[in-house]
Amino acid sequence: METGYKNVSLLFVVIFGIVVLGFFKTYFGLFPAFSNVTLIQHIHGLMFTTWFLLLVIQPLLIRYGKYKAHRIIGRFTYVLVPCIIISIHFIAREAYLNAVAAHVPKHDIIAGLYFPTYQIFDFFILYLLAIINKNSTPYHMRYMIATSLAIAGAGLRRVFTHVMGLSGAEPVLFAFLIPDLLLIGLIVYDKIKGNNSRAYNIALIILVISHYSYYFIPDSALWQSVAGYFVRFF
User: Fold this and answer.
1) pTM
2) CA–CA separation, 56 and 230 (whole Å)
3) Given this model, what pLDDT does residue 161 score?
4) Which residue from 42, 123, 135, 233 has the highest number of Cβ atoms inside 10 Å of its Cβ?
5) pLDDT for 142
6) Quick one: pLDDT at residue 1?
């Protein structure tokens, strides 16, 4: 493992801490009663907790030469990741049905589905790139780091809303900016250290496109039509 990344597990701990803080009011802080928490929310929370646990463990296994254990756990993600994606789908479905029951305007409901859609896309693409590059440790590691930043936005948005009391457009904007700025910082770090930052560059392009498309795609006629068609299956 590259010297500058020997403590990368700490980064994953911090990101998971942010996610826990963001969802503390609506999920983690409800322990042990978990009042009004549905089964799919429990499954979703378990899937992502497992994912972050693996992100913390895997670099430690590499650092201490436990390569066989690292490969075995890596194969487990072939099952875990599809389960995570399915759980996001059902969380989106649940949110959609709740919004319909609350008589939220259909246009707003369809627009809101952009969040889980881009998160599924970004997370899966970055994970797929990590697996494709599993025999190239520098690329594999960087894409795995990027997967954590791709899903950190959901927690960040709730931190700014539930913890810091912000509202309106600000929580969304900050939840986009922070992962993007972290990736830019990692790119700069690699440049300074003389490392190949190509994986971070690709990840940044993916996140930037997804993040800032939010400001024009959800309200577009195309999105409303396509997403509106698919929610019929909800």
Assistant:
1) 0.93
2) 36
3) 93
4) 123
5) 96
6) 66
Rounded Cα–Cα distance for residues 137 and 125 (Å) = 18
State how far the Cα of 113 lies from the Cα of 107, in Å rounded to an integer.
10
Question: What pLDDT is recorded for position 212?
Answer: 95
Q: Is the dihedral of CA 41, 150, 122, 81 positive or negative?
A: negative
- How would you label 170-208 residue by residue, b for 16+ Cβ within 10 Å and e otherwise? ebbbbbbebbbebbeebbeebeeeebebebbebbbebbe
User: What are the tens digits of pLDDT across the range 153-186?
Assistant: 999 999 999 999 998 889 999 999 999 999 999 9
Low-confidence ranges of the chain (pLDDT < 50): none
Q: Which residue has the tokens 């599924």?
A: 120
Burial 70-79 (b: 16+ CB within 10 A, else e): beebbeebee
Amino acid making up residue 187:
I
CA 178 – CA 207 distance, rounded (Å): 11
Q: How buried is residue 101: exposed, middle or buried, by Cβ count under 10 Å (0-12/13-18/19+)?
A: exposed
Which one, of 123, 115, 125, 75, lies nearest residue 227 by Cα?
115
CA geometry: angle at 21 spanning 20 and 26, to 5°? 80
Q: What angle do CA 53, 9, 118 make, to 5 degrees?
A: 65
Which candidate, 83, 56, 84, 49, places its Cα nearest to that of 155?
Answer: 49
Contact 17, 47 (CB under 8 A): no
Output the average pLDDT for the chain. 93
- Going by C-beta distance under 8 Å and a sequence separation of 6 or more, which residues neighbour residue 210? 118, 121, 122
Distance CA 58, CA 67 (A): 9
